[in-house]
């Protein structure tokens, strides 16, 4: 099933990404893939204090851009790749009035 976004969801996602630390967390989680990373690994990699990271993770989760799972004592976060792809699709849906070939992603890679 493919995820689609409405205007409200797109604005919420873009607002969550419109902050440097949150963007860095999201990009790190995209690189990590579906397994994600533990909170400790995210904090260590990005040099963020736990309270600061907790706030940013909450904002990303509220926007639906990340998910979490608990394994024992650890919480792991992963990027919601379907939501990311839906946001990219939303932003480029009517690119150049639908003229084929004008709007191409910089990379042909897809998650």
Automatic annotation (TrEMBL):
Pfam families: HTH_20
Keyword Repeat: no
UniProt entry tagged with the keyword S-adenosyl-L-methionine: no
InterPro entries: ArsR-like_HTH, HTH_ArsR_DNA-bd_dom, Metal_resp_trans_reg, WH-like_DNA-bd_sf, WH_DNA-bd_sf
Record domain HTH arsR-type: where: 2-99
Keywords: DNA-binding, Transcription, Transcription regulation
SUPFAM superfamilies registered for this protein in UniProt: Winged helix' DNA-binding domain (SSF46785)
Single Gene Ontology MF annotation: DNA-binding transcription factor activity
Protein name: ArsR family transcriptional regulator
Species the sequence originates in: Pandoraea horticolens
